[in-house]
Specification:
The protein is mainly beta and 426 residues long. The chain contains one helix and 36 strands.
Length: 426
């Protein structure tokens, strides 16, 4: 009896070991062609499909393997399955020729500084490179900004491409890049800082992305080859002197979110012939359009409440102005030396006209001043058209008007413009 029990146990153990051994011969079905595959195989012998993982082949949960969809290797990443993330082989690596990778266009020698969750980039040793393509990532993190002074005084730089990953262009980033002709700014940029493209005097065009909300002071000043500019609707701020002395600029369109055209923004843009001011602008700054000698007409929207000193001084070609119905202040010298100005309508909202506001407007023949105006500065219509007639709705000079408000010139003991009081429009 005891001997029979021992024999029975031995038989059971033998059967168990045989069963385990048979598991080693287990196979899978190729999900691509249906061929049986040994569990230790990495490739299907029939179709060559790669098998993701055979370590748990006997487990029913893993019998269905990934049918790979391979993405080609890049300079920084190996061949990779877009479904499961498996990689095959190695990254191609960069192949630099004349300072740029022939595969991806990345520039050799750029310098990267870790900044928050991404990198800030600068020129590094690539100072003699003419075409620079900034990569969207470095060391697995995004490139998010152009460093302050990052590419300033790069006199060899002719083309720059900024990727969508960049959100911020730092102060002086491309300051005085005297050979820069083309700048492609990615759609992620929200802030263009002060002096960013200052004195890039060969830059002929620039496209400001819709994501941009702020354009800093002097950002495009003295870009003397820049021909047109469109400020998108998301921009709320344009800093002082932003387009100062862009002497080739002919067209400027200001979007509908800008709240102020700051001081000197378009000063000295002598060829600027057409300006569209967005309907959210509330103020036009000091000297904003001074010496825009080709500007023939301007419409100031109803959103504007103030026109600052010297705003349109020496706009020699300006013939007509439409001033919106919310303007309350016309500053000193605001339209002085506008030699061709023939017509202007001052709306009933205006309360103050500054000193010499319309001085030396040689062709201005008549002006109607509404009764709302309670203050006019000294020599407001100085040295203008000989036969200028000023029609005043007030029946007599208000106390806030300067005694010499309508003084014209000193010839023959002093001359005054003709004034008609109590004008009703008849």
């Amino acid at each position: 009896m005891k001997k029979s029990l021992i024999i029975t146990i031995c038989i059971i153990m033998l059967l168990f070991l045989v069963g385990c051994s048979n598991n080693d011969d287990a196979s899978l079905k190729c999900t691509n062609c249906g061929e049986s595959i040994a569990i230790d195989s990495k490739f299907c012998p029939q179709c060559g499909e790669t098998i993701l993982d055979t370590s748990n082949a006997g487990n029913n949960d893993n019998n269905e393997q990934c049918s790979h969809s391979w993405e080609a290797a890049t300079c920084t990443l190996p061949k990779t399955c877009s479904k499961c993330g498996e990689t095959d082989g190695e990254a191609l690596g960069h192949n630099y020729e004349n300072g740029s990778c022939e595969f991806c266009g990345e520039t050799e020698g750029l310098s990267y500084t870790l900044s928050g969750y991404g990198y800030s980039v600068s020129v590094g040793t690539a100072t003699s490179v003419t075409n620079i393509a900034i990569p969207s990532s470095f060391n697995g993190l995004p490139v998010t900004s152009i460093s302050e002074d990052g590419f300033s005084f790069c006199s060899s730089l002719t083309n720059i491409t900024i990727p969508d990953s960049v959100t911020y262009i730092g102060k002086n980033a491309f300051y005085h890049c005297s050979s820069l002709r083309s700048a492609i700014i990615g759609n992620g940029v929200t802030n263009i800082s002060d002096y960013a493209f200052y004195e890039c005097d060969r830059l002929t065009s620039i496209s400001i992305p819709n994501a941009v909300t702020s354009i800093g002071e002097w950002s495009f000043a003295k870009c003397t080859s820049l021909k047109n500019i469109t400020i998108p609707d998301n921009v709320t701020y344009i800093g002082k002197d932003a387009f100062y002395c862009c002497t080739s600029l002919t067209i400027a369109t200001i979007g509908n979110s800008v709240s102020s055209i700051d001081d000197f923004v378009f000063y000295g843009c002598d060829l600027l012939g057409r300006v569209t001011i967005g309907n959210s602008v509330t103020s036009i700054g000091k000297c904003a359009f001074w010496e825009c000698g080709s500007l023939k007409s301007i419409t100031i929207p109803d959103s504007v409440t103030s026109i600052s000193d010297l705003a349109f001084k020496e706009c020699k070609s300006l013939e007509s102005i439409t001033i919106g119905n919310s303007v309350t202040i016309i500053g000193e010298y605001a339209f002085s030396d506008c030699d061709n100005l023939k017509n202007i309508t001052i709306p009933n909202s205006v309360t103050s006209i500054g000193e010499k506001a319309f001085a030396d407007c040689d062709r201005l023949k008549s002006v109607v001043i509404p009764e709302s105006v309670i203050s006019i500065g000294n020599l407001a219509f100085w040295d203008g058209y000989d036969d200028l007639i000023i029609y005043c709705q007030a029946t007599s000079k208000p106390a806030g008007w300067d005694d010499e408000w309508n003084f014209k010139r000193y010839d023959n003991g002093g001359q005054y413009c003709t004034v008609i009081w109590g004008y009703t429009g008849d």
